[in-house]
Amino acid sequence: MPMRKGAKRKRVQKDKEDEAKASSSSQENHKQESTKAPTRAKSVKASKPQPEPEYFEDKRNLEDLWKEAFPVGTEWDQLDSVYQFNWNFSNLEDAFEEGGILHGKKVYLFGCTEPQLVPYKDEQKVICIPAVVAITSPFPPSDKIGINSVQRESEEIVPMKQMKMDWVPYIPLENRESQVDRLKSQIFILSCTQRRSALRLLKIDRVKKYEYCLPYFYHPFKEDELEQSTEVQIIFPAEPKPVFCEFDWELDELEEFTDNLIKEEELSEDQKDAFKEFVKEKVREAKKANREARESRKKALAEMSEETKKAYENMRFYKFYPVETPDTPDISKVKAPFINRYYGKAHEVF
């Protein structure tokens, strides 16, 4: 349909008006932009120097072995002082490596401490030195603990579990994520589950027992020192103070021994007869204990298998002290093979 002339004219006029408006609007925008303050260029911050990457030495696989072995017999209030130094037991760790004295063997370990006067930072100081005793054996060397001290009237041999102690498998660091029951551990440590925080709930005598504990060992092929001894410890409850002495039934004559105590005013005359009866009773008890111990040992040997006998014959004790480092005390002159009265001396000291 042809467009009317009037309509076409109107449309052309309208297009021209729209172009004029657009041109006017563009000029206005340009004017506003030109009147704006120039924007300041953003300053580029200098990048901070990146710190050098820190390198931490990998933990050794058996690094905490010496700490895990409970330091039997150490006073509770001295435990913190044992760990005040960064002791290094790499010699113990190396013993488990190929070619080491403990490599491929089943080993039982317990800790102990020895207070010694040693040089440290240009002065002599009493330091509680840790040591670790390693026993090579196919079975636990003992399931008992000895409790003994000068203050106690008699020695006690009790099951470890009575003192919350037991031999438990030690899991090396690289195996900590593994299931324990799938690991065939060759290293066992004497562990104690008694919490220090719970000590305040215990009676003083119970707490002190821990301080008098010694790992117990009985060698069936060796006669115990007590079996050979002819001495008895005497603590006679006299007034005003008890009488402390040692009586040897083979070397001492009781009448003369008692008279000497009276002369030294350790014992009063009116307590003489009671004291003599007390000593006689202690001697009877000691002789009976010695006799029973010998009989028990003979019976145990008779019933023992050849395999067990061989195990006892091949059992070895090794004592490890910390190796020398720049930040620990010099202990080179105080190392000793003696372990305790039950184990005697170590076969080797490191």
TrEMBL record:
Q: Where is the composition biased (Basic residues)?
A: 1-13
UniProt entry tagged with the keyword Coiled coil: yes
- List keywords of the entry alphabetically: Coiled coil
Residue ranges of coiled coil = 276-310
Highest taxon of the lineage: Eukaryota
Question: Is this entry keyworded Membrane?
Answer: no
> Where are the stretches annotated Disordered?
1-57
The name of this protein is Protein HEAT INTOLERANT 4-like
This chain's source organism reads: Hevea brasiliensis (Para rubber tree)
